[in-house]
């Protein structure tokens, strides 16, 4: 297993649309394990392949308190949504920024598991936000896109300044 470098806003690769996975093979399962190790190490509750520079439709997540329930979904799809819900979100690709985001309260999700088997379930509350956040990544969208332009431009300037200071 390996910890993969996480891309940071405003990296243009975070804006790419990821491609559907046609078949789940051992190489992709290895990517799942690396993404899980990266997510747990960060630490975060979710991670999209986009964030580690891989333009494939794959997300991993674990919202359990004990951090002992690793989950992955290939080609995740939202089939239906219900209600609206506001929650504070953060993102490993936008470190240090926490803002309230309005999303669907519950979502019906379908995808493929690590064996390529189709799975379908209902997510609500924090899990619902997390899954919507991860699927947004696969579509090149970041949670800061839901904020005002002024807030987003402040965050971008701060991120670029931070990056310059690190170089
Ligand atoms: O660690 C994370 N926390 C979080 C909190 C609220 C809503 C979504 C998330 S996902 C985030 C990790 C991440 O950046 N995933 O893409
Ligand atoms: Ni994120």
Secondary structure blueprint with pairings:
Blueprint: H1 26-41, E1 46-48, E2 58-61, E3 71-89, E4 99-112, E5 118-124, H2 125-138, H3 149-166
Antiparallel strand pairs: 1-2, 2-3, 3-4, 4-5
Residues 91-93, 133, 137 line the site of nickel (II) ion (NI).
Report on the architecture of this protein.
This protein has 167 residues and is α+β, with helices and mostly antiparallel strands. It has one domain: Peptide deformylase (Peptide Deformylase). It is built from three helices and five strands, in the order H-E-E-E-E-E-H-H. The model has no long low-confidence stretch (mean pLDDT 97). Bound molecules: ligand GNR and nickel (II) ion. The site of ligand GNR has 16 residues, from strand 1 and helix 2. Nickel (II) ion binds at residues 91-93, 133, 137.
Beta-strand content bin? 25-35%
Helix tally equals 3
Work out the count of structural domains.
1
Report the principal-axis shape: globular
**Uncertain runs:** none
**Do you know the CATH architecture?**
Alpha-Beta Complex
Rounded mean pLDDT score? 97
Q: Which fold name is given in CATH as the topology?
A: Peptide Deformylase
Question: What would a concise description of this structure say?
Answer:
This protein has 167 residues and is of the alpha+beta class.
Short key terms for the protein model shown above:
167 residues; alpha+beta; Peptide Deformylase; 5-stranded antiparallel β-sheet; 5 strands; 28% strand; globular; binds ligand GNR; binds nickel (II) ion
């Amino acid at each position: 297993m390996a910890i993969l470098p996480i891309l940071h806003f405003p990296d243009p690769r975070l804006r790419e649309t990821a491609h559907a996975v046609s078949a789940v093979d051992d190489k992709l399962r290895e990517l799942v394990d690396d993404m899980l190790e990266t997510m747990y190490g960060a630490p975060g509750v979710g991670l999209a392949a986009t964030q580690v520079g891989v333009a494939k439709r794959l997300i991993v997540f674990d919202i359990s308190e004990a951090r002992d329930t690793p989950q992955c979904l290939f080609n995740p799809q939202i089939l239906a949504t219900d209600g609206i819900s506001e929650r504070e979100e953060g993102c490993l690709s936008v470190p240090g920024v926490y803002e309230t985001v309005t999303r669907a309260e519950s979502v019906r999700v379908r995808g493929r598991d690590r064996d390529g088997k189709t799975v379908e379930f209902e997510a609500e509350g924090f899990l619902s936000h997390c899954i919507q956040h991860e699927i947004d990544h696969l579509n090149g969208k970041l949670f800061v896109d839901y904020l005002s332009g002024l807030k987003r431009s402040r965050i971008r300037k701060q991120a670029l300044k931070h990056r310059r200071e690190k170089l």
